[in-house]
Amino acid sequence: MPAVLKEEAPTRLRVLLVEDDPGDAYLVSELLAEVDAAVVLKVASSIREVMEGGLLGDTDCVLLDLNLPGTTGGLDGLRRLLAVDPAVAVCVLTGIDDEHLGAAAVAAGAQDYLVKDRVDGTLLNRAIRYAVERRRAQIHLRRLREAELQAAESARLERGLLPRPLLCGGGVSALPFYRAGRRSALLGGDFYDVVELADGTVHAIIGDVCGHSVDQAALGTLLRASWRALVLARVPEAAVLPALQQVLVTERADPSLFTTVCTVLIAGGRASVRVAGHPVPVLLHPRPVPVDAAIGLPLGLNPDAKWEQSDVSLQDRWALLLYTDGLIEGYGPKPPERLWEAGLVALLTEELATELAELPGRLVERAEVLNGGPLSDDVAILLLAGGGAV
Question: The pTM is what?
Fold first, then answer.
């Protein structure tokens, strides 16, 4: 004999009846009991009781009378409930048979409008369940739309923060890499850019606006675009960072906000480096060595700050690794010690045989293994190479 499948019992919904007439409250409970409705019914006599008792926190659906003490009539009670918990499903259950009022109640956020002397237990039970499901569907659609907007915003910011290198084929290659940290729903304030001018000089920047929000990402986009404009306008290299600091100070909403930056100018077999509170680049050949560069203050801390130029000789075959501090702030081989620069150099030494095109991703993977999971901060990497190193 085939087994008989039992239907699962419907989930018992938590229903709050807001009704000041004990007779009407008793009638509602009897209607639901007659049809064995799968609900747990609570009763409150006023909006004030609902608010002071925090009753909306464990409620799936509210059956709301409009004529309650402490309200101004009309839709006042409905609006006050939805102001406290916009996600709760509300069915207006009133003695007022008014088509226009019903339409206004639904427009204000109610899921249904029921007239007391026109409902029975079946209709009331169905209205409660439909109201809860409609409200859940609305919330799901809203969250989906928010996720879509967030994804679109992230894509827009990515185009601004992480542009394609503007290279003319003069012998320098750029390998950019970016990975968002586990805390970031959107991109953070990490950015990079590379521009090659007609005279063959190659200019690069990598930076990090402190903080993790859309505002920081937008400011990073502005600084990156401003840097490219300054370079293309052939502003003297020594004047670029002061100009960027002026942009930052003018545009930041928070006066304590700062940005770390490293710029590189490649020309005539040399790399000229300026560092504003940022990790220094690492020269990879013949062995990984951090560039001996003077480190100045981050942008935005001192209007009179200076950033000295440090020059590095480049061999015929060379590679220079620029990165943001998210790469080295995770745990190193001996937690709770961080990876820091020394740990990164050790990883690079172990990865000497790794193809340059694969190196940025490989470094992040190894840093995540040491950290015991995803890195908490965003990581941007810009690998510059010349002389056929790629």
Answer: 0.64
